[in-house]
Each structure stands twice: as C-alpha cells, then as structure tokens.
Design a protein that fits this description.
Elements lengths: L2 H9 L5 H12 L1 H4 L4 H8 L3 H10 L5 H11 L6 H8 L6 H22 L2 H13 L2 E5 L5 H14 L3 E4 L2 H6 L8 E6 L6 H12 L3 E6 L12 E4 L12 H17 L1 H17 L6
Parallel strand pairs: 1-2, 1-3, 3-4, 4-5
Helix pairs in contact: 8-13, 10-13
C-alpha cells in the first residue's frame, strides 16, 4: 500500500465518525478519488466539504488540492484512456448535471491555482522572459493548442519567439538553444516524449527552462529551472486545459502591462496589415 493510503489506514481508528466514513470511501476508491473535486467527493462519500478540509488538515496537508495531488502521485501509474472512460461513466447520467460537473471541475482547477500558485516563481519566470533574447515554446499533440495561443500573443510582445513540437523541428531551430534563450515546455500526463527530450537538451545547452505541467513527478521538472503546475485530469476521456490556459493568460496580461509601449506599437503596425488584407470583418 502506498504511503498516503498507509497514513489514512493507520489514522482511521482514532478518527471521528465522519472522518472515518470519508477514509473508508477514499480507501475503497483510490483511483477514482484522485480525479474528484472537493464538491463531488463530498457528495459521493456522504460527507461535507468542511469535513474534507478538516480531514486533510488532520493528516498534515495544507488543503484538499495538496492532498489530491499526493493521491495522484501515490498511485504511481498512468491512468489508461479505457480506465478514464470507465470512470467517466460513473458521472450522473442527467445531462444538465453532467455539464455543470464539467464546468465546476474547470472552476475548481482554477481556484486551486489561486490557492497554490508560487508567485515568487511566477515573477521569476516573467523576469526571465524580459531578460531573454529569444523564447522557444515547446509542446506536442493536444497541448499544441496552448502553445499556439501563447506563441500568437508572445509574438506581439517579444521580437524573437519560436514554436516547436518535434525533435526534428528543434534541430532545425538549433540557434534558439543557448544561454540567451528561455525554453518554455508544456506537457501533462501522459507526457509527450518529444517535449521531454527537447527540454532535456535545452537544459544541457544552458537555456533557462520553464515547465508548465501537472505535478512535481512530471518528467520535465528535473530539467527545468522553474516549474508551474496546473491540473488537467478529470473523469473523462479527454483532459481539460482551462487551468494551464489561465496561467498563460496571466503571463500574457502581465507582460503586456510591463511592455505596454512596445505591444501598442506592434499592434498598430499589425493593424495596418490586418486592414490591408481584410483579416477581420469590419
């Protein structure tokens, strides 16, 4: 049995009735619980959110987000697509309830960022961007949606930004990998090998490396100068990227504030081209 579950099992005998009820549910539903937000766990376990918060505190955790993150890490396994699809079928079949649950999960992920974001790390990354000569954004597969969004707006803020998704593309962009570059890697379980390899190479080339990922156990954290974390997993076939997108939004907003004059100038120049080529329906 993993350490966190050992801790729960050993402490259970001295727990209150409500905490014992919650402990029993967690021990009987280890994998499922790691995907649940606090509201859903309270409903399914027949307890309350306040009980869950007190339960986590009694076990030595700062709150439910930290507790759930350790649950996910303790499983030491990659949840397969088939397992996640099976878990999603446990959700209430009522259509309205299902949609609300999806949105509530996203909202909870963003709230967890507000509670757990290391602002010192966040602003250290901002400074790294501002001091860099080049920025390279690395992502693969579905996380390319996040990377493309970030790349689009960073091009309005900085002079030299590239986007790569494969090792082959990285080799063609070799001039980006030196001490003057910030390499920003995005990957979540199940982690893409290309992103891992590029981040490892970037670290070897003395780049400042930044990880946007899901936990300290992510394979790109050891090769990262800085790391930011966001939850993406839910009891569904696909991940949700609302939380990591909110971190990227915060970066873009703050950088636009700091580099207001340059961003304004770039937008004015871009607007002339947009008008010339009728990019927007005005």
């Amino acid at each position: 049995m993993n350490e966190i579950f050992d801790k729960i099992a050993k402490a259970k005998e001295s727990m209150s009735k409500s905490h014992k009820k919650l402990a029993d549910y967690i021990l009987e539903n280890k994998t499922k619980v790691s995907f649940l937000n606090i509201t859903t766990l309270a409903n399914l376990s027949g307890t309350s959110e306040a009980t869950i918060v007190r339960f986590c505190s009694a076990l030595g955790y700062k709150g439910y987000p930290q507790f759930r993150q350790e649950l996910q890490q303790a499983l030491e396994q990659k949840i397969t697509i088939h397992e996640r699809l099976r878990l999603s079928k446990d959700i209430d079949s009522d259509k309205e309830a299902f949609i609300k649950q999806v949105i509530e999960d996203d909202a909870q992920h963003v709230k967890n960022i507000l509670q757990n974001l290391d602002t010192d790390v966040f602003f250290a990354i901002i400074e790294a961007f501002l001091e860099s000569k080049k920025i390279c954004i690395v992502a693969g597969r579905s996380t390319m949606a996040l990377a493309r969004f970030m790349h689009y707006y960073f091009n309005l803020i900085f002079d030299d930004v590239c986007l790569v998704s494969t090792v082959d593309e990285a080799s063609e962009r070799y001039r980006y990998f030196d001490e003057d570059t910030v390499v920003f890697g995005i990957t979540f379980a199940r982690y893409t090998q290309s992103t891992i390899h590029i981040m490892e190479y970037a670290k070897e080339q003395n780049c400042t490396t930044v990880a946007l990922t899901d936990s300290y156990t992510s394979p790109i954290v050891p090769c990262s100068t800085y790391a930011l974390f966001a939850e993406t997993e839910v009891a569904s076939l696909f991940d949700t990227y609302v939380a990591p997108l909110s971190i990227i939004n915060a970066m873009i907003a703050y950088l636009c504030h700091v580099k207001n004059e340059k961003v304004t100038q770039n937008i004015e120049e871009a607007s002339k081209l947009w008008s010339t080529f009728h990019i927007f329906n005005e």
